[in-house]
Amino acid sequence: MPVRKSKYFRRWLIRLLILLVPLHAAWWWLGLSEWALRGMSIVAALALPEIFHHSVGAIVRQDNQSWTVITRLVIEHSEPSSLVVMEIAKQKLLHMIFGFPLLWGLLLATPGSRARRIAGGTLILIAISLLGIATDLWASLAVIVNHQASFIDEGVVPPPFLVSTAPYPQWLFYLSSFARYLAILIVPMIAPVLIWVMLCPRHIMRLLVSLRRRARIRNTEAGAS
Amino acid sequence: MVRWLTALFGSRPKIARPSPIKRFLLIFGATALLGFVIEVIPWVDDHVIKPYIAAIASLASNLIHVAGGLADVNKTILQHPVNGFSIMVANGCSGLEAVILLAAGMAAFPATWRQRSLGWTVGATALITLNVARIISLYYLGQYSRAWFDWAHFYAWDALIILDALVVFFLWIKWLPPFQHPRHASTKE
């Protein structure tokens, strides 16, 4: 039985590459990333003090789009007693959410109910990004509380003061450093692809079948010659 | 075990087989996590990762020299001898994270070990080559504009590398011979 040659993969890839150009332009140059950061800061201001209710008091967005984290950690021997204040730089926050244009590109290039998938995918990625920021914050708090440098990131060193809080167990300290490594380096990169795989399983199967069909044609042609 | 379960439940228990995509995601996640755990072990970092990063920094410097440019290399630091601009190739800039993700994807996909080995070799070479291009481009971009350097460093190149890994993965699947049932595909040759 002759098998029709499929251009499904090539068409999908070209569609994706074409879509990524305007999506990245809108994200980086038309201010979409700035708006996303504003939205994230509202969610973070509500969620992070709840997640770390023992150690985080408030999250305040600055004019330069960085976030100030007012902790509940008291600096030892400070008169009057002062709290530790940390800053999450805009650059780091933007890095945590750089996957949105890629996710939208992957979902838009895929046939099917795009609006529903984009809404769902965006919500999932917001949750994952927020979790990544929370993980980074957790690891930073662990470095301050334990007064110990991160074992993975040599640049993350404790401040010159001590805080009056019981340190984390050593295994939890290591776990926080590893979780931060995953949250900063791996998750922003792979999350859009995994969300796409989860939201479009049928399309992925069709894409794979299309790729394997081409292989079958090649083999059939080679056998005939 | 099955006899014991049969006695307990009255009939042979039905164990749900995960769908191919769920199975893929499970194996992919576990393999990638194992790769990242190995990568951060201090001994591996000292004896494998750091020498590897020094080697790619040296390769980037040699390529810049071949193209007529100027770059001095000191372990993982590339420095311009005239204007003093320098970049340090840090652990996160090694490109190994994308290589681990690609390798995990190939490990999770039904194929023979020989096909996987070839995929790992070609895929890792493609990603490492792209990463060397990334280092050279950042070296020049940083001398031109700090803002563009930051943009390319923190956002654009990461997106490009994962996209490259995805395309390499699909091309590897395309190269694989006709579909075999997953139960038979994982057998050693």
Shape of chain A: elongated
Number of discrete helical segments of chain B: 7
> Taking Cα atoms only, what radius of gyration of chain B do you get, to the nearest Å?
22 Å
Beta strand % of chain B: under 5%
The domain tally of chain A reads 1
Radius of gyration of chain A: 23 Å
Shape designation of chain B: elongated
Strand content of chain A: 5-15%
Q: Which spans of chain A of ≥5 residues are poorly predicted at pLDDT below 50?
A: 1-5
> H/E series of chain A, N to C?
HHEEEHHHHH
The chain-level mean pLDDT of chain B equals: 85
Account of the 3D structure:
The complex is a heterodimer of chains A (225) and B (189). With 225 residues, chain A is mainly α. Chain A has one domain. Chain A has a 3-stranded antiparallel beta sheet. In chain A, a hairpin with a 5-residue loop joins strand 1 and strand 2. The N terminus of chain A is likely disordered. Chain B has a 3-stranded antiparallel beta sheet with strand order 1-2-3, covered by helices on one side. With 189 residues, chain B is mostly helical. In chain B, a hairpin with a 6-residue loop joins strand 2 and strand 3. The two termini of chain B are 30 Å apart. The C terminus of chain B is likely disordered. Chain B has one domain. In chain B, helix 2 runs antiparallel to helix 4 and helix 5 packs antiparallel against helix 6. Helix content of chain B is 70%, strand content 5%. Classes of the chains: A mainly alpha (225), B mainly alpha (189). Chains A and B meet through helix 1, helix 3, helix 6 and helix 7 of A and helix 2, helix 4 and helix 6 of B.
